[in-house]
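Help! Submission page says 'invalid entity' but I think these are all valid:
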Amino acid sequence: MRAQEVLAALKEALGDGFRDGEIRTRTVGVKSPQTIEEVWGRIDRGVLLPAVRALKDLGPLHISIISGADVGEEIELLYHFAVGFGTEGGEVMVTLKLTIPKSDPVVPSLCEVLPGAETTEREKIEFLGVRFEGIPDSRHLFLPEDMEVHPWRKDEPELAGLVKRKVKWEERDG
Amino acid sequence: MGELAKAFEIPIGPVHPALKEPIRFTFRVEGERIVGVDIKPGFAHRGIEFMGLHRNLVQVLYLAERICGICSISHPVALVQAVENAAGIEVPPRAQYIRVIVAELERIHSHLLWAGVAAHELGFDTLLHLTWKVRERVLDILEELTGNRVNYAIPIYGGVRRDITPEQYPRVQEMIRYYRGLFEELCDRFLNDASVEARTRDVGVLEPDEAEALCAVGPTARASGLRKDVRQDWPYLVYGDLGIKAITPEDYGTEPRGDVYDRIVVRLLEVAQSIDIIERCLEEMPEGEITFIPKIPALLAQLKKAEGEGIGRHEAPRGEVIHYVRLEAGKEEPVVWKVKAPTYSNLMSWYPMFEDQEIADIPIVAASIDPCMCCMDRVHLVRGGREELVWKEELLKLSREKTRKMALGNG
């Protein structure tokens, strides 16, 4: 599969919901160099599920991971997909970025289309405080259930206390 | 009768029944059959990504090396690719070959380690000792080439930290001959053994459609017949030149069934594949530089100026590793660093695998995806509201008794 096909399919399925779409290329290999193409783009959360369905129509779809970052008033999520997963030399990495306001950190869950996304979505719940609508299981995965601090948020005042905590009986850094 | 025949819940862990790593399984059992499972990882979560966001990139590389003691080159290889893509750094050809050689040596040692653990879980300790004895050879070579048996500290942004010298070639080639000579015997011991087959055939089955939907990776997916391998599908380093093909049980001449036996087949064949890759790399490796910027302060200064984002992927012994890095000019530390290890993707595969299995099969099914977390001391068993402690030895005894009974049954 070619990156152009993926880009065209996303544009067709999402229209204006897909922005800043680009193909980034680089060359790998020594004896017989090959060009590797990656698709990057920005979407609105409203078109996330149609985007994933459009990618799934292109071939076996794999979600590698959802990365996330606190960018001030918003949270940025980066969905890294491998489209055509398991096709020799034909896998295209697609990264879809979407931003959601901290005041309303809700995105639709992918589990209905891609059940394998549950692990990474549950991780974003605890680390960034994102809510996934329709996720079958929203309990914490890696962090304790009663931990309310989201470690990747930059506006968590309790976080410094957790990282630089004093050992009380010694009155020095723990 | 009704109230007697209902399901019980058995929590196993957080200390792990099969490997020396913490995770908690809560099994629902009806008699000896498992009807459901709940999995809770996170007992070894060290917040490495958080730490990385407060350190410079060379320090991050040290952290990445220590994410896993077995995959101690897989994470650095993925991280350096992500940073090289973000910062636009070229890697000299020789360095790419050296990365591949060390990565494949790691695959051999990891798969042999796993094969030994699997034999141990079945109560076949003679095979464990044989496998781990032959594994020493690859560890010796890793020590010879890198200075360490684990944590090789080989990749650096833009190259590798150590060259392979001409005097070392014959020793690596000797190791290649040693494993080639052993391979048939090893396969015979594992794959033609009646008790291994009885305990692993049709146990812990993962159907291909389940593997695909649950985004399984590595030998776990390949044993179900899916030809997925990052080295084949998304060429990086020199893997594209080497024409790697993903291995499934079909390459052994059997129809993939997606059970524990098939996972043994795939891993053993991959040991042979890695040996071939190392041999070819030694032959084809060109002379030349091994780093883009040899001096660390100059490298750090260059990385501080870099702005961009990148993905790095690698096929670790257990499957796909991916790192995402975002750099901002003027900052020494990455702004975003996300790590994904293969077990993260394979976690969901455990649900269908455990379905309808026996309690005595828990250790081998849990071990079959080659999970990478961390140690099991005891099992906490709740039976009809009455709590009992079952030690690891007892669970292993259960597993071994099953092997013995089957062996006796087979005459």
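Support: the input was valid. A stray whitespace character was the problem, and the output above is from the cleaned input. The domain at 3-173 of chain A is CATH 3.30.460.80 (Beta Polymerase; domain 2).
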